[in-house]
TrEMBL record:
Biological process terms in GO annotation: DNA integration; DNA recombination
Matching PANTHER family: INTEGRASE_RECOMBINASE PROTEIN MJ0367-RELATED, PHAGE INTEGRASE-RELATED
Descriptive protein name: Tyrosine-type recombinase/integrase
Gene3D superfamilies associated with the record: 1.10.150.130, Intergrase catalytic core
Lineage of the organism: Archaea, Methanobacteriati, Methanobacteriota, Stenosarchaea group, Halobacteria
Domain Tyr recombinase: 120-326
Domain Core-binding (CB): 11-96
InterPro entries (alphabetical): CB, DNA_brk_join_enz, Integrase-like_cat_sf, Integrase_catalytic, Integrase_recombinase_N, Integrase_SAM-like_N, Tyrosine_recombinase_XerCD
GO MF annotation terms: DNA binding
Origin superkingdom: Archaea
UniProt KW keywords: DNA integration, DNA recombination, DNA-binding
Amino acid sequence: MTIDRDDLEPLEPSTAQQLFLDHKEAGCSESTVRNYKYRTNHFIRWCQQEGIDNLNELSGRDIQQYRLWRKDDGTLNKLTLRMQMSSLRVFLKWAGTIEAVPESLYDKVMIPRVSPEERQRDETLDADTAQEILDYLTKYEYGSIEHVVLALLWETGMRSGAAHSLDVEDVNFDQGRIRLVHRPDEGTTLKNGKAGDRLVAMTPALSDLLEDYIEDQRRAVEDGHSRKPLLTTARGRMHRNTIRRVIYRVTSPCYRGDPCPDCEEKPNAKCPEAVSPHAVRRGSITHFLSEDVPVEVVSDRMNVSRKVLDQHYDKRSEEVKLEQRRGYLDHI
């Protein structure tokens, strides 16, 4: 049943934001909730500036005016604006379910398009989307190669080349860890060579998933060096390009049944919402940092120098960093 505007229940913007964040806390990580808060704070600020004290009053024209205002407010790049408008769309869709705005208002949020070059430079899989995909895979495709590849890359932050190099014997379930080894003479390498050799701790959930995958889903094949790869196809060790294709496939909203207007407009085209394995790594690193894991720990776990991490992988907003620093100072 469509709700008429006259049937809406009055709701003040900042109150709506808090209710929305309370709703998100039930199923999202703290970092995800923080990101939603920071991204919607600008919309609340705009409502106050425009004298909008009731969400019922919002129209598609207001949403367009906010988009233009946000674009000109500060020095936002297209990707940041895209993320903020996407978060606003989620917020308004939720508001429609509680009769605070017309149910279809979220459809009027215009999400900026980003060129492949701009997207590739800063492309990041955010924690909320990663968890949404993993929840879908856990429910409908538990233990599949798609499930294993994404969970492995997300929870360890390792490069796709490192995942490609893993053997079954590199996974130690008793000690809850994965061993990464540079083996150039046997056809597998790590980006940083021997310096990339390391042990990576597994979460209990990842350990259970890998154990179930090996027992029930993994193809019992060997590679050309008589090794037993962890990730396999009918031909042997899964190629790095295949890992890349798997990530593109599972990160597409279309994969889990969510609509993607771009794909509908261009049938058979690669989904523009899908991301690369490197975006998964970047998102994983950002997620760990947002959860207050020390930079030195993240640097060692992900095998990336502090300088490179700061320059290319840490995609926390300045607001998130500020609030995290404030949290430390409050305890001094």
